[in-house]
Structure to design on (183 residues):
């Protein structure tokens, strides 16, 4: 829980700096952070090194700055990562990258969601669902499609903290509860 609050604060701070420079800079920051966060997630030894209290902040800085050079990060990202090293927060890079991505999506007017269906949908149906939902929400949607036969039919949509359950399983559960209550 603490990591989430801390990572959001660091992401928001970097976002506010980039906001002044424009959307192109924000996208570059996001790409650099994403590459670093992915490197930390996919390389357990790197994550361990960033959490290791035996390594000095300077040693951790050298590692993260060399990774940032490969990722194509600029001066602002270098200073940001140096600050993270000084504050012993480099292990939060994946969470900071994810939080920054949420802020960047919001600035672009994009919402991300997951559509769960009982059967696989073809491209035409996926596009129709996305188009219908975009017209209802007024935002551009990036949807991930998941198959879960246990919902029986219909669909479940998760966008942010909201869940819209139009599955047959949910309707049957509601009917079952109504019968139990004697309605």
């Amino acid at each position: 829980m603490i990591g989430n609050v801390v990572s959001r604060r660091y992401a928001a701070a970097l976002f506010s700096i980039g906001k002044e420079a424009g959307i192109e800079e924000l996208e570059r920051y996001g790409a650099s952070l994403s590459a670093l966060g992915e490197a930390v997630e996919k390389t357990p030894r790197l994550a361990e090194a960033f959490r290791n209290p035996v390594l000095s902040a300077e040693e951790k800085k050298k590692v993260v700055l060399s990774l940032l050079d490969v990722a194509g990060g600029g001066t602002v990202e270098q200073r940001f990562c140096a600050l993270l090293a000084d504050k012993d927060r480099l292990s939060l890079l994946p969470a900071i990258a994810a939080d920054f991505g949420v802020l960047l999506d919001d600035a672009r007017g994009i919402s991300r969601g997951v559509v769960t269906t009982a059967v696989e949908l073809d491209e035409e149906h996926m596009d129709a669902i996305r188009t219908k939902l975009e017209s209802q929400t007024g935002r551009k949607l990036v949807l991930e499609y998941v198959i879960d036969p246990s919902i029986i039919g219909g669909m479940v949509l998760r966008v942010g903290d909201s869940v819209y359950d139009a599955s047959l399983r949910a309707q049957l559960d509601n009917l079952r509860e109504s019968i139990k209550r004697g309605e």
User: Anything to note?
Assistant: The helical segments are 2-21, 23-42, 44-51, 57-71, 75-86, 93-108, 123-137, 168-181. The chain has a mean pLDDT of 91. Residues 173 and 179 are 10 Å apart (CA to CA).
